[in-house]
Amino acid sequence: MTPHVTLKLRGFGDLNDASQTWLADQVQRNVRSLPPRVDLLCQGGGTGPLHVLIEGWAIRYKTLEDGRRQILSVLIPGDMFDINGHLAKSMDHSIATLTPARVALLADDFLDTARKLHPDLEKLLWCDMHVSSAIQRERSTSLGQRTARERMAHILCELFMRQRSVRLAEGGSCAFHLTQTELAEALGMTPVYVNRTLQDLRRDGLIQLEQKCLTILDLTRLEATALFDGDYLKICDADGGAGAHKENAHAF
Amino acid sequence: MTPHVTLKLRGFGDLNDASQTWLADQVQRNVRSLPPRVDLLCQGGGTGPLHVLIEGWAIRYKTLEDGRRQILSVLIPGDMFDINGHLAKSMDHSIATLTPARVALLADDFLDTARKLHPDLEKLLWCDMHVSSAIQRERSTSLGQRTARERMAHILCELFMRQRSVRLAEGGSCAFHLTQTELAEALGMTPVYVNRTLQDLRRDGLIQLEQKCLTILDLTRLEATALFDGDYLKICDADGGAGAHKENAHAF
DNA sequence: CGCTCTGTTGACATACTTCAAAATACGTGG
DNA sequence: CCACGTATTTTGAAGTATGTCAACAGAGCG
């Protein structure tokens, strides 16, 4: 069974068989099983090696001195984190599991080896990082510009799409492991209002959400109410070839 | 005169003389002068080479279909952008000048050459990228958790600190090229409320802001009202040495 | 079967927005 | 250097999206 990381990376471009088997091997070399709701890495603490989430959900979050907490991103199987850990002297944010999870800890020389022996893989890793940044930017845009309802619709679209791209969605349904309180922390709103916003979306026949399972009843309309444009999830194009820049829209 | 990029990168770690002169040379090889308020790169359009902002201010922003605009980050002299442009097939956001600006376009093989001939420089480039991500995360945290007053205080602290670290602040003063409308777009609030928030901060004797010049009258108190912790601007430590991970705060 | 966590509801409060207009600064051409 | 048009800042009054508080109802779990 091919791991979710592979599926994810292959979404960005081709990966030859040798690279694929090497990656699959690396990813099962050193796996830790974790209970739900524990910190893997702590804001202010030391950094770690490159991690790959194999199974379960996790979050990246920041806390303010007074305890307010912002969930920066939701990590699902196939997601990598702390890719540049070796560069930082300490974490500016934390990583915690939401559910029971399995995490692969990659060897310290993983990136170096990939660079030398599997350049196609290395390229896809950078693509992944690039897309992660794009997701982060979209999140900022949500927080700054979208209304509560739009933000909610948007995060639902995003998490559905991301799961679908690693074969974790069945038809219009996928797992959904955020409590309403966690959703509130991700969307910069209050748990009570999250509840009301979800009810709005349900009443409008856009979604169904119960027992950790999200069903999208009308994707087109949900995307419309979210002002969702999924392009940011697939702006990468490792096959496009180096230097082959598209015509540049320079104003000057 | 050493360019701001060099100052910035040297903030992350040492850079030997050969790398410094090579960098300084690369950065003045192909410089474009731009008028204020023009797009350099357009959302949806093609990507470009690695850019370095030499002089003037610019912004990274995203627009929603209906015209709402979120300023994602403010670029000041020494900042680089589009570092991974070659990986993406299109831009998920735009870059525009705010003031008249000068921008260096680096050669397509800049990164490759740096990797081969100036590994110390390459490392600092990744550090820079890493810090940019941290800034982006802090921005999300602001948008999601901080009140209008806190967000305002925070962005003022950040822009002051960043300018200071490239010698662009004199005492407690620095340039400030955002209009109140732009400030509003960066902070996810309304221009009117930006105005009122600024007046609050002024009335409280925290800042002075007039004629594109910001003066911080009481940094300690401003940081306190912002819940500002400047560590995120200097989490990088290229000298720390590869593999020398600090003791890890694993919960498991 | 009782505890704790999560979801739901209602009434009320407020931080922030909206609209609209005046005052001030800013740039440009004459 | 002035005069005019445009962009920015400032002010006031009124509206609303979202937050707060508090209580209750289910669900999950040992």
Automatic annotation (TrEMBL), chains A, B:
Q: Which GO terms describe its cellular component?
A: cytosol
What UniProt keywords are attached to this protein's entry? Answer: DNA-binding, Transcription, Transcription regulation
InterPro entries recorded for this chain?
cNMP-bd_dom, cNMP-bd_dom_sf, Env_Response_Regulators, HTH_CRP, RmlC-like_jellyroll, WH-like_DNA-bd_sf, WH_DNA-bd_sf
- Which residue windows are transmembrane per the record? none
Pfam families cross-referenced by the UniProt entry: cNMP_binding, HTH_Crp_2
Record domain HTH crp-type: where? 146-220
Q: Does the keyword Methyltransferase apply?
A: no
Output the superkingdom of the source species.
Bacteria
> What PROSITE patterns does the record point to?
HTH_CRP_2
Task: Please provide, alphabetically and separated by semicolons, the GO molecular function terms listed in this UniProt record.
Answer: DNA binding; DNA-binding transcription factor activity
Q: Which PANTHER family match?
A: CRP FAMILY TRANSCRIPTIONAL REGULATORY PROTEIN, DNA-BINDING TRANSCRIPTIONAL DUAL REGULATOR CRP
Q: What is this protein called?
A: Crp/Fnr family transcriptional regulator
